[in-house]
Amino acid sequence: MSVSLFGLVTIGAAPRSFRARAGRRRATVWHGLALVVIFLSSVFPFYWMVTTSLKRQADALAYPPLWRFTPTLSHYIDALFTHDVLGSLINSLIIASSTTVLAILLGTPAAYALARYEFRGKQDLWFWFISNRMVSPVVLAVPFFLIATQLDLIDTHIVLILLYLTFSLPIVVWICTDQFRNVPVELDEAARLDGASPWRIFWRINLPLAMPGIVVSAIFAFIFSWNDLLYALVLTREDAVTSPVAATNYMSGYELPWGEIMATGTLIVLPMVIFALLVSGRLVQGLTMGAVK
Amino acid sequence: MLNSTVSRAGKAKAGAYAARTRAGLRFLPRSPAFWFLFPAVFALAVIGIYPLLVALYNSVHQYRLADLAAGTPFVGLDNYIATLTDPTFWQALGRTVLFLCLTLPIEIVLGLFAALMLHRPGLAWMRAAARVGLVVPMATTYAVVGLIGRLIFNRQFGVANYLLGFFGVRPLDWLGDPTLAFVSVMIMDVWQWTPFCALILLAGLTMVPKEAEEAARLETRKRLTILWHIERPYLLPGLTAILILRSADMLKMFDAVYTMTRGGPGAATEFISVYIQRIGFRLFDQGLASAQAILLLLLTIVLSRLYIRYIYQEIA
User: Fold this and answer.
1) pLDDT grade for B18, boundaries at 50, 70 and 90
2) Whether residues B104 and B25 fall in one domain
3) How far apart are the CA of B92 and the nearest CA of chain A, in angstroms?
4) Minimum Cα–Cα distance from A60: chain B residue
5) Is the same domain home to B92 and B16?
6) Mutate which of A52, A53, A142, A144 to disrupt the B interface (most B C-beta within 10 Å)?
7) Are residues A262 and B308, on separate chains, in Cβ contact within 8 Å?
8) Which residues fall within 8 angstroms of residue B133, CB to CB, at 6 or more apart?
9) Which residue of A lies nearest to B164 if distances are taken between CA atoms?
10) pLDDT digit string, tens, across residues A76-106
11) Given an 8 Å threshold on Cβ–Cβ distance, is B258 in contact with A230?
12) CA of A151 vs chain B CAs: smallest distance (Å)
């Protein structure tokens, strides 16, 4: 009885596994196809920007679009030196790195306190930090413009460095709080028993152990600051113009210099893409740390 | 004489301070937590709250940059009333909500699809490549996304029309037609933010215990059943985060729209932030723009409160 049942099962299983294997192969083909589509649709607009920046104007305006062409770097030279995109890139670099450093200096101790200490109003404070990240830049840009005008800070680096803290600081606090929570609290207690001061416990024990999260948050702070357009558009004129503003400055006149615009775009985006790719594992980690937890 | 009064006042102040400290604020200066938090809180208060107070002040005054000779008289709630009775304000807000309701589901569905494809075993190097590809849109500066949009959707030589030509679609004036301009901004937004959704959902999927998934795969061959019964709980926190962040981001959306359409044609893509920027910096009515900014801020606060209360309970 039991033997025949066993036999039935094996007999029934043989063609099914064969069919299953064919089905699996077909599924794998679809899987691969889907992955190719995901990759191409993600990369195509970027690819199109880069190739357009390398085309001569006539090639860029050709229709149907050209897929093969003789590349030229002349747009990069024109953009960098004639339109002073170089200066704007330097401005962006100064501003984004200053605000990142400031955000880390101010944000990591705050994140540590939020992760380790219990006190009244902690949740409200936490909420306040987060809500800063959600506030539309235009809400602050309107009054900040007037404040900056009165303080004669229009078109300076410092005003943007400070203003970018409104989003870089919350993102640092957000990500680092999570990171500090993962540092075993026993280490703190052991150090306290050895007589270490709170600051020392933070500086010598927690900060080094939380470094991966801090790096991730720094990258985020840098990318967000580098990417801002609205604040820079409103608060800069010539000297402190950042690269996204420089990229939009082409948008006047009838015949647009597409090559130069795309060259500028590439110069702005390429460092960010390389940056993000170098740490892509951590970028995802950073996203989930900041958002999912 | 004067000195002694001052010092007595000082002493009284110190006494009051001591009383207050005894009464309950004692934890503040003593606790290390206070000193860890103080610099960040102070900085954010100065940059984040003080300007809001200025905006609040300006919002009840007439403040036209183009007409400063008229002075800045107190006008009460006029700016608020003007905003709330202005159909263009409501249209901009409605447009923003419409954009959110149309774009977010697409991003979540496509993101979930991409996440499932990246999660599926096999084809390791192709999955790795796709994952690398997903980083590119996320790393693209918003303003440049708009510029790329202008290039791709150009009426004369845009590659979008060219590619659609294969499907028999006649060349379209993407950025000249109100509906199509809206759609093309949507497409660029979906391009940029689907990877964000995909990676967050993927992170949720990697938390699903392998055994549970494999056991379920033996039970059923329907992918959706596994998704619903096994993976759903792990996806929900990420989904919540997406909802919060994307909703807030749409209220903020400015850069890509500004470089791509400047809110046009007409007002077809004038979302709320673009609208306020136009009032404040192209029409130079700072009072009105301040009132609108305050209203937008209230909306943001209500929105994030709701989210935090009802959905995002894991916080703190």
Assistant:
1) very low
2) no
3) 14
4) B157
5) no
6) A142
7) no
8) A38, A39, A40, A42, A43
9) A64
10) 998 898 888 999 999 999 999 999 999 999 9
11) yes
12) 13
Are residues B84 and B146 both part of a single domain?
Answer: yes
Q: Which residue has the higher pLDDT, A224 or B304?
A: A224
Domain that holds residue B22: 1-30
| Residues of B whose CB is below 8 A from A144 | 51
Helix (H, G, I), strand (E, B) or coil at A118: coil
**ipTM of the complex, rounded to two decimals:** 0.83
Concatenate the DSSP letters of all residues of A62-109 into one string: -SSPPSS-----HHHHIIIIIS-HHHHHHHHHHHHHHHHHHHHHHHHH
Tell me, yes or no, whether B100 and B244 share the same domain: yes
Residues of B in contact with A119 (CB under 8 A): 27, 31, 33
Q: Which range, A134-138, B13-17, B77-81, is most confident?
A: B77-81
- Alpha-carbon distance of B314 to A111, in angstroms, equals 17
Residue A68, exposed/middle/buried by CB under 10 A (0-12, 13-18, 19+)? exposed
**A/B interface, count of CB pairs below 8 Å:** 313
**pTM (2 d.p.):** 0.83
Interface of A with B in 239-278 (CB under 8 A): 244, 247-248, 251, 258, 261-262, 265, 268-269, 272-273, 275-277
List the structure tokens of A229: 């357009």
| Max CA separation in chain B (angstroms) | 94
The alpha carbon of residue A290 is apart from the nearest alpha carbon of chain B, in Å, by 9
Return the structure tokens found at B315. 């916080």
Q: What is the mean pLDDT of residues B235-243?
A: 81
CA distance B28 to B9: 24
Cβ distance of B203 and A287 shorter than 8 Å: yes
* Residues of chain B with C-beta less than 8 angstroms from the C-beta of A96: none
Domain match, B7 and B130 both: no
Q: Same domain for B101 and B10?
A: no
Q: Which residue has the tokens 């909703």?
A: B247
- Distance set, CA A106 to CA A95, A111, B104, B261 (Å): 16, 9, 34, 38
Of B136, B157, B315, the CB nearest to A43: B136
**C-alpha span between A173 and A90 (Å, rounded):** 27
Count of domains for chain B: 2
Yes or no, beta carbons of B140 and A142 under 8 Å apart: no
Whether residue A108 contacts residue A89, with contact meaning beta carbons closer than 8 Å, is answered with no
Claim to verify: residue B182 and residue B113 sit in the same structural domain: yes
CATH number where B154 lies: 1.10.3720.10
Tokens coding A20: 């299953």
Do B14 and B108 have their domain in common?
no
